[in-house]
Amino acid sequence: MQAEANLRATLAAGTQHSIFIDGEGRLFSSGNGLYLETDEIEVGEDLESEEALAVNGLLGHGEGVTRLNTPTRLPSMGGERAVSVSAGAVHSLAIAADGSVWSWGCACRLGHGDDENQLQPKKIEAFTGQRVVTVSAGSNHSLAITVDGAVWTWGLGGCPLGTSNNLLPKKIESMTGRRVVAVSADLMHSLAITTDGGVWSWGEGRSGVLGHGDREDQLLPKKIEAFEGERVTAVSAQNNRSVAVTADGAVWSWGLLGHGDEQRQLLPKKIEGLAGQHVVAVSAGAFHNLALTADGAVWSWGWGDHGWLGHGDDKNQPPKKVQALAGQRVVAVSAGGDHSLARTADGAVWSWGYGGHGLLGHGDEQNQLLPKKIEGWVVRPTPKKRTRASAASPKTAGV
Asked: CATH number for the domain including 280?
């Protein structure tokens, strides 16, 4: 689950699945369409147990397709080219070239005004007349930014939305007058960046994930005052923590995980283990984090189960460079529930971590302790000739 910005995300790692866009704007997915009904199941446990439910449509391929071992093409989105994707826990979102939004997966998060699962991508008609530039799929809700900088939310209500359930997209009126350029949705909280580099948060405040110095819930977006004097360029919200990048390339986190201890951080705190690195993108997964530096290197930290940190073992680690990708110029990263994805400048996709149910896209179910290229398949390559502006543009995971 990636940070989102007003940039194009051509790959996204969800909790148990991955989505890709190829050079022709076609959607592909891999992984499994089963999700955990109970928190009692351990990471990597057999999901074909009675405690797991099939979400027909999570992979976007229709009835009964709940496992794909390699990236497999989805049905077309009404002939539209996909330009950006976001993968949540049990649903997915895609933006088409015309600015429309398409969703599929588990009910109530999809924005179609009903509580039905969607087996294949379906256009969200509520955005007719709007041009959407960014989407973020959380666990229970979704966020979108329209071209005018407005933020829209829909899904299961309460703290994440600040309202009751919204089965249709609804504009956050309290942000009127502020132009939002990036959003990130988690299970129970959300983050947004405005054009002045300020960060706003709302939702459930447990573990200090909102960054306001307390654990209070916020039903409306509230500016994080601790970033006064800083310009934030990227955010990622996931699993009881929040991560941000400032314009100087520093990485900050609050909530749980990130500072080498188990202390809750109620206010944003700079991650000293990345001092001296100029980070341009971050992505927070369920139990680990990824960072992309300006020179195309990948760093990871957090819990190391199943090798999702990419260091050749399953040990917990403070921020550490993924040496297996040395010599590759990485331009995008995305951290999922049990796995990690990276895209290199030539359009190749690398994956590592838990391999069960074909999650990694290599055609088998082997865990990968080191990044491994998905052979014979690429997402949209980075153009060979780029302007100065585009060369400096990757500021969020999943670009």
From this structure: 2.130.10.30
**Dist. CA 154–CA 101, nearest whole Å:** 13
What does the pLDDT look like over 4-18, one tens digit per residue? Answer: 333 468 999 998 899
Phi, psi of 321 (to 5 degrees): -70, 135
| Domain containing residue 140 | 4-391
Upper half-sphere CA count for residue 140 (Cβ side, 13 Å): 17
Task: Say if 242 falls within a structural domain.
Answer: yes
CA distance 109 to 116: 10
Tell me what pLDDT residue 381 has.
57
CB 240, CB 206: distance < 8 Å = yes
Look at residue 398 and tell me if it is in a domain: no
User: Is the distance from CB of 255 to CB of 261 less than 8 angstroms?
Assistant: no
Q: Is the pTM of this model over 0.85?
A: yes
Residue 264 lies in a domain: yes
Cβ-proximal residues to 117 (8 Å cutoff; 6+ apart), any chain: 55, 56, 57, 105, 106, 107
Which positions ≥6 away from 287 have C-beta within 8 Å?
43, 239, 257, 302, 303, 305, 308
Comparing 48 with 138, the larger pLDDT belongs to: 138
Average pLDDT, the chain: 86
Under 8 Å between Cβ of 17 and 359: yes
Helix (H) or strand (E) holding 83: strand 82-87
pLDDT tens digits for range 219-273? 999 999 999 999 999 999 988 889 999 999 999 999 976 566 667 889 999 999 9
What total number of domains does the chain contain?
1
Domain-located, residue 396: no
